[in-house]
Design brief:
This protein is of the alpha+beta class. It contains 7 helices and 6 strands, in the order αααβααββαβββα.
Length: 232
């Protein structure tokens, strides 16, 4: 009710509140027409207070939901922060354990990100992080979970996905992010940097919690990064 009345004029608001009071009194089953004036006025005033409390509660709940959403969101990107990501991953692990569904985790670390910060500045680095976050969102399913785990590290929980699916997705993301070139639009003397990503993929197994799964994926990512360095 609080939200639906915000757009009304003062006269319309008064009429809407009066109608809401009558509806509330009628729902209780009180026929005010048979009551003395002072009792009728008291009941209408009480109904008005009930409606005011309902509006206040609706506004408070809305504010709490907005605050909770902000607390879950990364400070830079429109994705989960690490705390919220681990919480959502724990929920998916509980579902996977209960129903025997596969669950894959991809740990992503950007290649040459420090070089980008050093060469172009942290403002450009922030834009790169934001772009990568949006790229990840654009290339996963709505049911998947994307979070920033810190710095230039990201995590993706692939629900209902086995290891092969996870590996394929990780390979695709490495290719997409690896195709991104970062350059300074105002200074063409600065050499562009080809961004890259190293992905570690692990399949959840019974007995593994969110923290241990993330740690295992992190280790797998480092092995992948080392392999790429040796191949250069």
């Amino acid at each position: 009710m609080a939200e639906s009345l915000d757009h009304l004029s003062e006269q319309e608001l008064y009429a809407a509140r009066s109608a809401a009071r009558r509806d509330l009194i009628s729902a209780i089953g009180i026929d005010t027409a048979t009551l003395p004036n002072h009792i009728r006025a008291a009941i209408e005033a009480l109904a008005g207070e009930v409606l005011n409390l309902r509006e206040h509660l609706a506004r408070s709940q809305d504010e709490l939901e907005k605050a909770a959403a902000l607390a879950d969101r990364d400070t830079l990107c429109p994705i989960f922060n690490r705390r919220a990501f681990e919480r959502e991953l724990s929920r998916e692990i509980a579902l996977a354990e209960r129903y025997g569904m596969p669950l894959c985790l991809i740990f992503i670390d950007l290649d040459r990100f420090k070089l980008i910060n050093d060469r172009f500045g942290h403002a450009t680095g922030d834009k790169v992080i934001q772009h990568v976050a949006q790229t990840l969102l654009d290339n996963v399913r709505q049911s998947d979970i994307v979070g920033r785990l810190g710095g230039d590290e990201f995590g993706i929980a692939l629900t209902h996905a086995d290891y092969e699916i996870g590996q394929t997705k990780a390979s695709n993301l490495e290719s997409i992010i690896g195709a991104l070139t970062v350059r300074d639009a105002e200074d063409d003397q600065l050499e562009p940097v080809q961004l890259g990503a190293s992905c570690g993929t692990v399949l959840w197994r019974r007995g593994r919690d969110a923290a241990s799964l993330i740690a295992e994926a992190d280790e797998t990512m480092f092995r992948r990064k080392s392999e790429k360095k040796r191949a250069r």
